[in-house]
Every structure is written in structure tokens, then in C-alpha cells.
Amino acid sequence: xAYRQTDKVAARLADxxxxxxxxxxxxxxxxxxxxxxMSEVAKKAGVATGTLYRYFSSKExxxxxxxxxxxxxxMGKLAEIASGDEAASERLVKVLxxxxxxxxxxxxxxYALLAEPLDVNLxxxxxxxxxxxxxxxxxxxxxxIENGELPKTDVRIAAACIAGAIPTALIGPLAPESHELDSxxxxxxxxxxxxxxxxxxxxxxxxxxxxxxxxxTA
Length: 218
Fold this sequence. Notes:
mainly alpha, Arc Repressor Mutant, subunit A, 75% helix, 2 domains, Tetracycline Repressor, domain 2, 218 residues
């Protein structure tokens, strides 16, 4: 008789896998992908190292899953904001503030996702991550142009420029050795938002909600 996995066993396996991913994500948030060592992940997850390899064949496979999962969560938040009912310019501001603001809030994890040197497989994940960001921005710009709210522009190029400008601007402030975010992180976010809005032909609003408020609702 073929073995049939019971619901209880399936739930236990899923819980173990979740514990492993959470442990690896915690290590990335503390010290980047370089800090992910299989023995340390196993220790934090409460499993034997041999058990860990039953779920993920290598450190690279585990890191790729962590990268993909965290990236998908962040992109989902931005996509949800972008699909709202507000004017295009308002949605653009919210997406920009959320993107940059959440990166500043979780700076070590964000640095790992946006800037840490990676192997080929993770570099591919990062490229997909940025292309998806560009698609989110392109959708907002298209909406604004269609309803006459935003000036006509090459949407794809403008969206790619915005998606590339944010991580580029954040690399320095997010770097582990940097102290730029220690005193006034909201200023960094505000400058990024202002620059990206100008690139889309939109004047920065006179009064923006505080980044901390935006992050709470994200």
C-alpha cells in the first residue's frame, strides 16, 4: 500500500519548514545573506542540520526561498496600495513612501535585498524584484496619464528609472557602516520621494504624512 501523508504529518512538516525559513530570515535581518550558515539556521529553528537538508538542498536554495518570500511580501504591499481608488499622484506618493520607509525601518534586511553582493541565483531574484517594482510604478503612471492627471511620458522608461533610483539612493544610507539614518531617517525618505515625483512630472506635496504613519498602515 502506498504511503499516504496524514494531515497531522503534513502540518508538522509545514511547521518545520516555516521555522526554518523564519530562522534564516532572522539571520539575514541580523547580518545579511552572508550570515546564513546551515548549522546556525538549524540551531535557531530547533532542528538537526541533517533535517534541514531534507527541506532545502543547500544554503543557496534556502537563501533563494527567503529572498523570494520576503520580496513577494513587500511587492504585495506596494501592489495593494497601487490598486487603490485614490488619484494616481496620491497612490504614487504612498507607494514611494512605503517602499523607502519600510526599507529604512528594516535597514539590514533591506540592504541584503537591495544591495548585498549575491550569487547568480539570488541576483536573478533581485532582477525580477526590480522589474516587478517597475511594473507597479508603470501601472500608476499609465492611470495618471490616461485620466489627464499626469504629463505624457514614456511610461516604461520612467517606471524603470523610478524603480532603479530608490535602491540606488538607499544603498549608502542602508549600509551597515553608515550612520546617516541614525538622526533623521524621514529626511532620507522625503528626498527620495521628492526626486521620484519630479521624475514623473509631479510636484512634491506641500504636506506629506510622516513616514512613520505610512509604515504603520502598510
